[in-house]
Amino acid sequence: MEEDSGDPDPASAVTAENTALREEVRLLREQVESLTMKQRFGIHRFAASDKDIRFFTSVRQAQRGHLTESKSATHSLQPIDECFMFLNYLALGSKQRDLADRYNVHQSTVSRIIASWSNFLYTVLGSVRIWIPQEQIGEYLPEDFKDYPDTTVILDCTELKCQCPSSPLLQSEVFSTYKSHCTLKGLIGIAPHGAVTFVSSLYAGSISDKQITKESGIINLLKPDMAVMVDRGFLIEDIVPCKIYRPAFPLGRSQMSAAEVRGDPGHSFVLGCMWRRLIRSKVKEHKFFDTEIPL
């Protein structure tokens, strides 16, 4: 009978060493992934900083829940990072070449991602009904509107500068005499308490306020017992089925005289002007809309 020499089994030693090496490899991979995540430009790199997320996307902390992570990875970027890239594009007005360098992808990939997310969000968000029924408007009516209780919406047009087409005919269609530039024009509706309740499609900058009101579809939402507040030059009385409130002064003016303020008993026109400016500033907060939009 052979005595046990006490030497370890070679096979067991190899197995133990192999297990230890596998564990070391796993830990090193985790470190590499962690370091890569810190260096890679994407949502995960800035997820812990509300300030950074706000800067790169204009999304506030309360809205961040909408940026949910997806586990699928059919492209070189995760869907969450594609969304983050698209928000960078809007919030910062980043050039596609710059985004390609930041995200380490080809510029054509950036172009495809921007087009895909634009179409996706247009379809999804465009199907959301944001118009508020008149009875709900009344529930939230500010005290400043007590003299105009039937006000349902404050209408205003906003123009975004765009590249000028090479065709002289197209140039004449999109050229805005108000901006002295080629623009795209949209109609925005704001409830008296400040909620955005209507956003039209974009039209050529030469379109009139009356024509954009006709084509936008807002008229179908208005009823005879409603009232609309508009600026002095917004002439739509003959096409809408409801009452029009219009101040004697232009709402877009930076200041009003004391006499004009006294002539606005509930200061509703002042509040309406404030909402208009707020919405315009929110649009231009996204730097993409404060530059020339490529056609």
UniProtKB/TrEMBL annotation:
Read off the InterPro entries from this record: HARBI1_dom, Transposase_HTH_dom
> Per the database record, which ranges form the Transposase Helix-turn-helix domain?
75-125
Would I find Lipid metabolism among this entry's keywords?
A: no
Source taxonomy = Eukaryota, Metazoa, Chordata, Craniata, Vertebrata
Every DDE Tnp4 domain range:
155-264
As cofactor, the record names: a divalent metal cation
Q: What is this protein called?
A: Uncharacterized protein
Query: Could you tell me one molecular function GO term of this UniProt entry?
Result: metal ion binding
Which keywords describe this protein according to UniProt? Answer: Coiled coil, Metal-binding
- Note whether Kinase occurs among the keywords: no
Coiled-coil stretches noted in the UniProt entry, renumbered to this chain: 11-38
